[in-house]
Amino acid sequence: MQPFLDECRAVVGDAHVLTDPQAMAGFLTDWTGRWTGHAEAVIRPRTTDEVAAVMRICSSGDVDVCVQGGNTGLVGGSVPPSAAATGRPAVLLSTTRMTDIDDIDTVGRCVGVQAGATIDAIDTHAARSGLMFPIDLASRESATAGGVVATNAGGTRMIRHGNTRAQVLGIEAVLADGRLLRRWSSLVKDNVGYDVPGLLAGSEGTLAVITRVLFALASPPPATTVTVVAIDHVETALDLIGLLRSAGLTIEAAEIMTQAGVDLVHEHGQRRPVSTSAPFYALIEVSGVGEVESEMIDVLERADGIVDAVLEPGPARALWAARENHTEAISRSTTTPVVKLDVSFPLRALPEAFGELSAIEGLVGHPCRAILFGHVGDGNIHVNLLDVPPERTEEITARVFAVVAVNGGSISAEHGIGRAKTAWTHLGRSEVDRTTMRAIKTTLDPQGLLNPGVLFG
Ligand code: FAD
Ligand code: MLT
Ligand code: ZN
């Protein structure tokens, strides 16, 4: 048995250093089932001080540390590499016991939370004070504060409130050597040097262990209405967003699905949002202060290209269910772990790029299937490739990223790079940019202990 584990037991307690393979199994395979790693133990600290002590032990013992929140990440960053990938021992540091949520500051409209608090718990807590957490995603019951910051998650409300980085007012994090970095202030104007909390947003566990976050909160929208429109062209969704904005309505969410995706979620028990068949379906949620529903009907009647439409007052969970169940239905329908690519395009290029992505299925041939959906208002398309023989993953990923490169897009819109896309970061960042990122990594984590193999390969 590794002596450093006894030191960790002394810090967090015997019960929170898991070494039994069965107890560790759920932590060591990612949500998609595509990555399984190896760790000497899963360590579950309760406080920032315990995280700092564990990091000091790991740093002196040269032990790799993979940080995990809710393990809903989709790029393999939440699990350690396999035993063969590194010569050093590794532990998985899970934040699942760090779930405290402070009282809401209703004047400053913010809340401090521990890294393991789930998005659902934070939002429920904020709602009791008449506020809302601005980030929402279908994984809300498992995804954690630390996870959404570390991935800079987008989600369905991004079009309205921005990504997670935009919600971070302050942060507390433990560096690789155990030192505590704390910038904690509800000041919305505070320009003293670099935006370090912003730097940790999107750092994917490679720079520090985030232990607490001070998040900005938002007011929930006044009346909302949700429509799902059946449409023949992606442009129609973008035009509709423009018309709704011109009518004075606020876009709270703007999503897109395809016929194949809606058929798949229907096979898995979800009601079809619209009975008429069409190549695409856009789900758009709007808010406003007036007669939102009649204002939306007025716009829908004037809009070109709408084949059919349904409307429901918000929150319209039944309409949202068809969209939110895509991820689950896809993962249950594929014979090999789904290859999930999460790309974005300038809105002007989106219709053309969507067409090119749709052709990928034909190009790669049987048995692969492609299901596309995503956050159309942000230009973000999730390309899900099912039944891909593992030996073809790289070639098919390269085909998708070629479409991205030609259309001026990004290879990672909101899920991060993780282990999945390290070979392609040159498509999105210049050499100087990548060298700068590496220099930051080396400065904060000179031993390279935090999440080796993630982001940098
Ligand atoms: P994990 O999966 O545990 O970890 C993700 C990454 O963050 C890893 O690199 C890990 O090392 C790092 N990390 C976690 N906690 C910490 C910490 N405390 N300190 C430092 N690093 C840390 N993503 C979106 O952006 N938009 C969506 O709409 C969306 N929808 C989803 C729907 C479903 C059904 C599922 C399964 C996933 C979805 N995701 C979405 C992906 C995922 O939920 C997000 O990436 C989320 O932010 C991950 O949070 P987590 O707590 O599960 O993190
Ligand atoms: C979503 O928007 O539902 C997610 O990002 C999850 C996914 O891509 O499957
Ligand atoms: Zn998404």
TrEMBL record:
One of its GO terms (molecular function) is oxidoreductase activity. PROSITE patterns: FAD_PCMH (PS51387). Keywords: FAD, Flavoprotein, Oxidoreductase. GO terms for biological process: respiratory electron transport chain. Residues 35-220 form the FAD-binding PCMH-type domain. SUPFAM superfamilies: FAD-binding/transporter-associated domain-like, FAD-linked oxidases, C-terminal domain. Its cofactor is FAD. Belongs to the FAD-binding oxidoreductase/transferase type 4 family. PANTHER family: D-2-HYDROXYGLUTARATE DEHYDROGENASE, MITOCHONDRIAL. This is Putative FAD-linked oxidase. It comes from Gordonia rhizosphera NBRC 16068.
